[in-house]
Inverse folding.
């Protein structure tokens, strides 16, 4: 089959209906054949961008770890004592501790005549929960005076801390 060619071969534009030489016509992205002065490139927004898949694997991944317990800084002067009693009450807001938890105190000063070395003992104390903000423990030594709010700047935490 032979097609028209040469300087006398013409074609009608699909867009305007004007006559153009076949050699001056161009085919657009949508299939229309138009004259050279009517040709339009495909708009970039009509071509969706190539979206790469989001990689989910992590190189050299580490398993989740369990955080070790750390001491909680107590409010200033958190200890209270009663004369001739070995029970010490501790104010630790929102402590989240339960009965029979073992708590070790650090950096405390003496309270109500109970020496700091007793309160800061390495073995810690088994506590009795009073409420969400307070608990008590038996110090093993009777207080000589009643003191509300003593002990200085102390912290409470587990009996051992791993670094």
């Amino acid at each position: 089959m032979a097609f028209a060619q040469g300087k006398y071969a013409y074609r009608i534009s699909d867009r305007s209906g004007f006559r153009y030489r076949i050699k001056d016509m161009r085919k657009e992205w949508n299939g229309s054949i138009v004259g050279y002065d009517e040709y339009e490139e495909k708009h970039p927004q009509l071509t969706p961008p190539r979206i790469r898949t989001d990689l989910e694997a992590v190189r050299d991944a580490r398993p989740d770890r369990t955080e070790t317990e750390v001491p909680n800084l107590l409010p200033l002067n958190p200890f209270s004592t009663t004369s001739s009693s070995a029970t010490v009450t501790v104010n630790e807001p929102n402590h989240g501790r339960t009965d029979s938890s073992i708590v070790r105190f650090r950096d405390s000063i003496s309270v109500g005549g109970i020496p700091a070395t007793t309160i800061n003992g390495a073995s810690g104390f088994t506590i009795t929960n009073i409420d969400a903000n307070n608990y008590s423990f038996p110090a093993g030594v009777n207080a000589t005076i009643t003191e509300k709010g003593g002990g200085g700047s102390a912290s409470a935490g587990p009996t051992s801390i791993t670094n």
In short: The chain is about 0% helix and 25% strand. The two ends are 88 Å apart (CA to CA).
